[in-house]
Recover the amino acids of this structure.
């Protein structure tokens, strides 16, 4: 192993997903130098198919990061969505019930691509295939070591941002007795298919069905994204494209199923569902953001969007530190971020409990789900609650 190459920057960001990239880009635009260490290649990161719905707050941050141009050109503004249940197709008018807000349907893959291209265009320090990342002296003068090829490197910094996702190294670098983890795992997963077919509906359709949950989403007018709830024991190789389409059609309202255009899957995967929060989101000079600190079931489309408010809070806290010598934001980050994270946790749990079929479903629970939906679509107040959470609570 060759001698360590040492670099010194104010902020070292671990993780080149949307959280890390967005913060890196925002700090760079304010002249705050930073380096981002990503475990895999850019191609590997961009091969992942994940979120599809952006809150208006996330969209605002992308524009502030000078990365919103393609999102605004190619993304679709959605002012409502449907919930199909018990033979009816109900609709929540997000625009009306949220007081004029909407969401943008634009794939996480594309916004991650936009962020990578902006970092490259602006000469950002992004290191791919940074292996064996390790965090050191987090309560003193922090530094990060990693391996690039056969070279060991060291980054001396003021702050480390752990944006390395649920399986990253950052949260695991916090002593066990300094962290409380809250978790619930759901007894099913989502089998997702991406297909080059026209979407079955101009707006998303969430489906509660006795056979299980389903979701009709999209990435564009020629790229559709569909999901069906499957048992945790299922493997993606158990599901042919034909079997997937047949199951989806059985869960959709007849008039929707009849107009479904099927085609070969260009991506097919099963995602487990869990709710998870690690508290606090800070240890010394390490700050956790995004999936490194919290995970939600994708039912409420809050995963990526919860990361956005973490980044917003961290960005302004670091600005105040470097521009004003004010650490109020940094000292209050964990409490402020968690307050919004838990509201997103609540909403994601509520949507998941309402729309999925649970293996041991008691008749009481089934009737409760039906009552929840009947109340939701009979109450203006309930539709306002749904809308304001879905478009995104204020940062
Ligand atoms: P990410 O996990 O996206 O990024 C972390 C990055 O850190 C990765 O690129 C990883 O390679 C890197 N990394 C990990 N360990 C490292 C190490 N030791 N050193 C250096 N780098 C390291 N959200 C929604 O809103 N809607 C959805 O439909 C949806 N579907 C999802 C499906 C799946 C299968 C998954 C896993 C998540 C889904 N999510 C969804 C949530 C998802 O979009 C996350 O919220 C989003 O990726 C969070 O972004 P980051 O916090 O950047 O974490
Ligand atoms: C998606 O398009 O992938 C998507 C949309 C909404 C969700 C979850 C996933 O709630």
């Amino acid at each position: 192993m060759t001698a360590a190459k040492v670099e010194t920057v104010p902020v070292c960001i671990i993780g080149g997903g949307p959280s890390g990239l967005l913060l890196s880009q925002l700090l760079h635009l304010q002249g705050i130098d930073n380096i981002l260490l990503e475990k895999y290649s850019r191609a590997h990161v961009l091969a992942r198919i994940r979120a599809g719905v952006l809150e208006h707050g996330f969209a605002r941050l992308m524009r502030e990061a000078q990365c919103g141009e393609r999102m605004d050109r190619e993304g679709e503004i959605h002012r409502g969505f449907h919930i199909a249940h018990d033979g009816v197709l109900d609709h929540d008018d997000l625009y009306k019930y949220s007081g004029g807000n909407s969401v943008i349907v634009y794939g996480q893959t594309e916004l991650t691509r936009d962020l990578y291209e902006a970092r490259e265009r602006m000469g950002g320090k992004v290191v791919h295939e940074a292996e064996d990342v390790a965090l050191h002296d987090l309560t003193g003068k922090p530094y990060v070591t990693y391996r690039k090829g056969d070279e060991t490197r060291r980054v001396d910094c003021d702050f480390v941002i752990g944006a390395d996702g649920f399986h990253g190294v950052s949260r695991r670098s916090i002593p066990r007795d300094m962290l409380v983890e809250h978790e619930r795992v759901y007894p099913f997963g989502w089998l997702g298919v991406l297909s080059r077919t026209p979407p079955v509906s101009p707006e998303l359709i969430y489906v509660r069905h006795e056979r299980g949950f389903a979701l009709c989403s999209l990435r564009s007018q020629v790229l559709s994204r569909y999901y069906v709830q499957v048992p945790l024991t299922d493997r993606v190789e158990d599901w042919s494209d034909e079997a997937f389409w047949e199951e989806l059609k059985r869960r959709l309202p007849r008039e929707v199923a009849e107009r479904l255009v099927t085609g070969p899957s260009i991506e097919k995967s099963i995602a487990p569902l869990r709710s998870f929060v690690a508290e606090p989101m800070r240890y010394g000079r390490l700050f956790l953001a995004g999936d490194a600190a919290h995970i939600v079931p994708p039912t409420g489309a809050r995963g990526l969007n919860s990361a956005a408010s973490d980044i917003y809070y961290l960005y302004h806290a670091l600005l105040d530190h470097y521009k004003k010598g004010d650490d109020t934001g940094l000292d209050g980050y964990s409490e402020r971020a968690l307050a919004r994270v838990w509201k997103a946790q609540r909403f994601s749990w509520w949507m998941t409990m309402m729309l999925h079929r649970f293996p041991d479903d008691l008749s009481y629970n089934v009737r409760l789900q039906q009552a929840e939906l009947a109340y939701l679509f009979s109450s203006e107040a309930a539709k306002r609650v749904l809308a304001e959470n879905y478009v995104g609570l204020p940062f």
Remarks:
- The first helix runs from residue 18 to 29.
- The CA atoms of residues 11 and 159 lie 5 Å apart.
- The longest strand covers residues 180-195.
